[in-house]
Write a structure and sequence with these properties.
It is a single chain. This protein has 2 domains: 67 residues, no CATH class; 55 residues, no CATH class. The longest helix has 19 residues. Helices cover 20% and strands 0% of the residues. It has 134 residues and is an all-alpha fold.
Length: 134
């Protein structure tokens, strides 16, 4: 017997696979640059107008927020954890993480040059122990 939950997941998967099959030229769904666990309500950040610095879902997506992980998978490697707390005193990431930073302070890669610093905490989590990094 199929539960309602598994029917919903199957329906979302069918929608995703059907959309992918509809166009042979369509690229695979982009990978998520952050872990999905604990972030199942994707539209909180990716909904239309939710955050001007985060890409919103395309107009063609009419799925429940919890269906995103059916097509979008986490990247093979997750962003490194911060080596310090992520509190309001550390909100201005680029005041330290920039070209010419002090020795040992990581500089964001070139792929991040268009990212607003309000996005850092969305992918980079605090280390589990002071000085730890993932």
């Amino acid at each position: 017997m199929t539960t309602i939950f598994s029917r919903a997941r199957l329906a979302a998967l069918a929608l995703c696979l059907g959309a992918a099959a509809a166009s042979a030229q369509q690229r695979p769904a982009p990978r998520m640059p952050h872990p999905a666990a604990g972030r199942e309500q994707c539209l909180t950040c990716h909904g239309p107008g939710a955050n001007e610095h985060i890409k919103s879902t395309p107009a063609s997506h009419h799925y429940a927020a919890t269906a995103c992980a059916m097509c979008h998978r986490p990247a093979a490697t997750m962003p490194p954890a911060a080596r310090h707390v992520l509190d309001d005193a550390h909100a201005a990431c680029t005041s330290c993480h920039k070209a010419g930073a002090a020795e040992g302070v990581p500089v964001p890669p070139a792929s991040h040059e268009t990212y607003h610093e309000s996005l850092c905490r969305g992918c980079h989590e605090a280390a589990t122990q002071p000085g730890d990094a993932r």
